[in-house]
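Recap from last week: sequence in, structure out.
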Amino acid sequence: MLVLVLSSFAVPASAASQTSCRDLDLPVPEALAGGVVHGTLCVPGGARTVLVLTPGATYNSTYWDFPYQPDRYSFTRAMNRAGYATMNLDLLGTGRSSKNPGPLLTSTVEAAAVHRVVQRMRGEFGRVALAGHSLGSSIDVLEAATYGDVDALLVSGDEHRVNLLDTAELFTTDLVPAPLDPGFTRTGYDLTQLTTATGRRYEAFHAPGVVDPEVVEVDEQTKDAFALAQAPDAIGIAILTAYSNRITAPVLIAMGARDKYFCGFVAATCTVRGILADEGPYYSSARSLDAFVLPTSGHDLNLSPRAADLHTAVASWLGRVLPG
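Predicted structure tokens:
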């Protein structure tokens, strides 16, 4: 049962009319005693489908509901305008969810917590879709492949072919233990939980894409941390194996054309045709597989100046695979 309803509020007029939002905390035994996963549930009038949103590493729910120019960058507002409810999560260890020791926060644990959210949303909506970014996508792949309880899956910023050189640079140059970063103001983290070093946000998640410098600044101000323990099963199972072949729901893979971690030399061909060819063998059981590529975008599609194109593509895809 959802407890601790913290607030109830209406979204601005620019969002869908008659959309109401409330903050919810869901108890999860995957966390330590008393642990909860926090989310914001926004429901436009008549919504039958809810998207459960999971952010990437060093992000929290801010990624999907970005505070700078929200009519351009807020994925939640765009989906609400399109008639879809959103449950925007802080993964365990981030945002307003429980802070756990880093070694306990594997991606498998996170997937189990997301599963509990999916099951709770089933009590309110006829259909539940998962939408993830980067690490959140890997967690969603684990959830969908393990439990088989979602009606559709959006995978963004995540493929099975990885540019290991740039990924290694991320871990060796861009990431630092959260307590050691003087610009990191959040508390409750240990040395196994990482964030981006101050001033490295652009290089870590936007380069070499086009991005508004103000977005990078707000991104730096709102950054969070992730547990190093999430990497082994996120990479070793969700990315480097065909575990995703267990997924039967429709899948949309969305990538930035300039995503340095997954596109280009020794990685994937980030065109629609290339993604379908590369990823098809890993989603052989999916009811359908579609791809979308956002031109000029780096890793963080939703923070690209062309984020509206992503929002339109996702809403169109949902209308096709989950009609009515």
